[in-house]
């Protein structure tokens, strides 16, 4: 456990949060009459999820000094997440993503080039803030948005390792940001420094350029990390010291929106670790929070509270009135 005189949240994370506009019309963005406004970002989604599950979390990053940026900052703060290290920039805008669901096919269009977040540098890091946390969580998205973003991730990991803070890494491979060939050496290098590695099985097939799942697990076993591999057939794989355990999913009654499921899983898993659970028990909690997220619409809005999780575990009946 790390010690520091300054008060830091249990989990610290950082990255790009963007405005999110969603076309409600199933004819697609071109013909949509209106757009719903929200925001999203893997790291801020996770921070909100951890906060709702009863633990302290901090998120920081660069946002534009614009209406979207201030909306995002206020909303994250309103969810109980510490945003004291976040910055609003006069020089660059907040990134934007627009989602459409045309003819049953979901697509996302990104407007994030030269965004405020892509200008993040290691100078934006508060070493004491990171060193005072229990877990630093980073993703491959921040590493992909710009060379300075990657430098910031590497610097943050170095600070955490020096301070004895555990590092959680979700590769979050985004092929709209870079190709698998570009991402492979970078993400695998970061994975080697993680204490908790949280990839998807499909991601590992691309990153290892390997279809044989047994060979993938053999390579993962060579890492020093506890590896939690999402996306098995109705289960999540837990790899600890070379031992593979399969943790079954929780059945979702009705799937409405799969966006945010991975972030919901990671929030549940890391919260489980903070509660003192074993990696297998924490994975079970992650599976439950992930299944609850996909039964409602939104990147982060559907993330469950600890009370909701406990009710689900205890099968408490909902009293409508």
UniProtKB/TrEMBL annotation:
Query: What UniProt keywords are attached to this protein's entry?
Result: Kinase, Transferase
What are the recorded GO MF terms, alphabetically? kinase activity
The name this protein goes by in its record:
Sugar kinase
Which family is this protein grouped under? Belongs to the carbohydrate kinase PfkB family.
Source organism per UniProt: Paenibacillus illinoisensis
Which residue spans traverse the membrane?
A: none
**CDD domains reported in the protein's UniProt record:** KdgK (cd01166)
Q: Does the keyword Flavoprotein apply?
A: no
Domain Carbohydrate kinase PfkB, which positions?
A: 10-305
Taking the record's annotation, the residue ranges forming a coiled coil are none
Superkingdom of the organism of origin: Bacteria
């Amino acid at each position: 456990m790390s010690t520091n005189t300054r008060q830091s949240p249990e989990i610290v994370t950082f990255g790009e949060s963007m405005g999110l506009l969603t076309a409600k019309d199933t004819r697609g963005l071109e013909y949509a009459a209106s757009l719903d406004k929200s925001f999203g970002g893997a790291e801020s989604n996770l921070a909100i999820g951890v906060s709702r599950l009863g633990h302290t979390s901090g998120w920081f990053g660069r946002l534009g000094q614009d209406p979207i940026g201030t909306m995002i900052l206020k909303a994250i703060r309103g969810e109980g997440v510490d945003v004291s290290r976040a910055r609003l920039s006069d020089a660059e805008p907040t990134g934007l993503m627009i989602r459409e669901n045309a003819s049953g096919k979901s697509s996302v269009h990104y407007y994030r080039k030269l965004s405020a977040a892509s200008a993040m540098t290691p100078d934006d890091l508060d070493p004491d803030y990171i060193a005072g946390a229990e877990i630093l969580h980073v993703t491959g998205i921040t590493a992909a948005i710009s060379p300075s973003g990657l430098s910031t991730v590497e610097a943050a990991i170095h600070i955490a390792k020096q301070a004895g803070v555990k590092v959680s890494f979700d590769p979050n491979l985004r092929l709209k940001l870079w190709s698998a060939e570009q991402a492979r050496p970078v993400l695998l290098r970061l994975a080697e420094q993680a204490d908790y590695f949280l990839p998807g099985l499909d991601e590992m097939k691309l990153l290892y350029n390997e279809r044989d799942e047994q060979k993938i697990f053999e390579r993962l076993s060579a890492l020093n990390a506890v590896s939690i591999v999402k996306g098995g057939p109705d289960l999540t794989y837990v790899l600890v010291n070379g031992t593979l355990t399969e943790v079954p999913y929780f059945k979702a009654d009705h799937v409405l929106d799969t966006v945010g499921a991975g972030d919901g899983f990671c929030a549940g898993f890391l919260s489980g670790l903070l509660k003192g659970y074993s990696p297998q028990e924490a994975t079970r909690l992650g599976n439950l929070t992930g299944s609850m997220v996909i039964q409602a619409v939104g990147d982060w809005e559907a993330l469950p509270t600890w009370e909701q999780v406990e009710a689900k575990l205890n099968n408490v009946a909902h009293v409508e009135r």
